[in-house]
Description:
Helix content: 25-40%
Oligomer: single chain
Number of strands: 11
Mean pLDDT: 78
Strand order of the largest sheet: 5-6-7-11-8
Low-confidence stretches: 46-50, 226-232
Structural class: alpha+beta
Number of helices: 8
Amino acid sequence: MLRRFLYLNEQAVDSYLGVVEGGLSDDVTRRSTRHGGRGGEAGLGFKSTSAKVSGQRDHTEEDERLVRDTPEQRFDRLIKAVEAKPDEYDYEEVLDLADAFERLIVGTLITVACDVEVPGVVRVLSQPEELGKFLDTMETMRGMAGLLGKNPGDLPTREQTDMIRQVSRVIRSDVVVVGEVDEESPKVAGKLEERYIREMPDGTAQVVGKVARRWGTNEHYPLMALPGASLMSRSQRRDQPAPSSDDTNVLRGPALTLDIVAIYR
């Protein structure tokens, strides 16, 4: 299968593959050899006799090239290795997440097909540069609204855009992706490291990751952590008021949070 990676955590791939293969090699030397021969024939003709002389010389040509391992190749080798020995490496390709949820434990490496997306608020607060460009566009359009036949009152005011800019400077969200198999199955979610994002995940894709935590029916996980939340103790975080039922920035159990290795199509 030729994969198009939306996300590939190269550090995680190298870490796992190093265990599976007993180390990593950066370069591979490949040699190709070609064998051939050169032949010739000469003839002498006479009225009553004839003679032929033939000869052949063998030769060998050898090419050598240094091939560098790519992250994509290393990922392919990792998946082939864990698929060959799923029990040894605690790996499962999940076909029915609702059925598999109860048996999946922390540390299990899984592959699951689902519809993935980055929630809207998370997408905005995780890309302050893009948000700034959007607000600049709004301010420019406000000044040109009359020329465009638009009502300036339909656009954010200067005070509103300034307030959004201030909030974006204070609150910065990690990039979090949420995956849904169907409405009846548990969801999956996980943080993405920005340096490994190749394309913002959106739509049907395969997600590969290690189970970091299972969330029960009455548990929830905030997709966007507020500043200072990491300084609170576990008991303080548990004492926080439950989110409203329509809060889209919360992942509700049953669900899995993953240490995501790859997202691809």
